[in-house]
Amino acid sequence: MFDIGMPELLVIGVVALIVVGPKDLPMLFQQVGKFVGKAKGMAREFSSAMNQAADSSGVRDVTDTLKSTTDTFSKVSNPVKATADSARDALKSVTDLGIDPTSNTGKLAAERAEDARKIRENSAKKAQERLDAEAKAAEDAAAEAKSRAEAARQSSETSSEAPEEKA
Hints:
Layout: H1 6-20, H2 25-57, H3 59-75, H4 79-96, H5 104-166
């Protein structure tokens, strides 16, 4: 948050020494330490309250779903390229076996490799469609969780404002 390095801390220390004096400086540092400790405690308490609110509104479930969808999407990131590579490998394996690609056997092997490529391509397209549907469902769930969290936040704000109005 603050970008304070050693030179800045040294300047602050020297100014504090001059302004406060060497006699009261340890008490000042003790008070600053207590203040920083209280601030950290308040930050921890706030963070845990936000985590509890996230848990109760289902944001963590949506986050986990999004992470798993992202992982799945990254595994199938370019199915068409993978399919083309596998077809090229199949054709190479036909020539590696010593079969002439222009002979009847070679043509049959090339046709089978092309059929396998088409099947893989269709499978990859269907997998991509599934991933898109999962991503859409995850987006919808995230939007719903966000609206629930907003509603929970608004209800907590109204419930915290109510005692203040009575006082």
